[in-house]
């Protein structure tokens, strides 16, 4: 009897052999529902616009500007992201602990792409948006988890009061 190769098995084998990695549902940092730091916002509703610039500095640091945002519990925010740097950057909004776990996964899979309700990876000169409603008070983090970027200073905080 010949072994059969199912479509699912074949696809899994293809992904493993090509080195492609995609963040799947439930992976650290990827949320479609309410999480400890809130939930995806409704783009049809009013939101406070917070522009976030991503770039490298002349002294070798990688930064967000601003690197601290304060919001009220229940507030909906539209982060308008712009990569003004010379390399790809990302914006991953999550708890500090979850970002630390996700950063470790990114070390293993540096080509992981992000286009989730709480995360965007942006090429040079590109922009994007994340609409998020902060439903609980606390201090949360946005970070670039591309290997080496966090260590170069690319992280910031959201303080929800």
TrEMBL record:
Gene3D superfamilies membership: Cupredoxins - blue copper proteins
Ranges for domain Blue (type 1) copper: 56-161
Protein name: Cupredoxin family protein
InterPro entries for this protein: BlueCu_1, Cu-binding_ET, Cu_oxidase_CS, Cupredoxin
UniProt keyword terms in alphabetical order: Copper, Metal-binding, Signal
Record lineage: Bacteria, Pseudomonadati, Pseudomonadota, Alphaproteobacteria, Hyphomicrobiales
UniProt-listed SUPFAM superfamilies: Cupredoxins (SSF49503)
Signal sequence annotation: 1-23
Highest taxon of the lineage: Bacteria
CDD domains, alphabetized: Cupredoxin_like_2
Keyword Oxidoreductase: no
The keyword Chloroplast belongs to this UniProt entry's keyword annotation: no
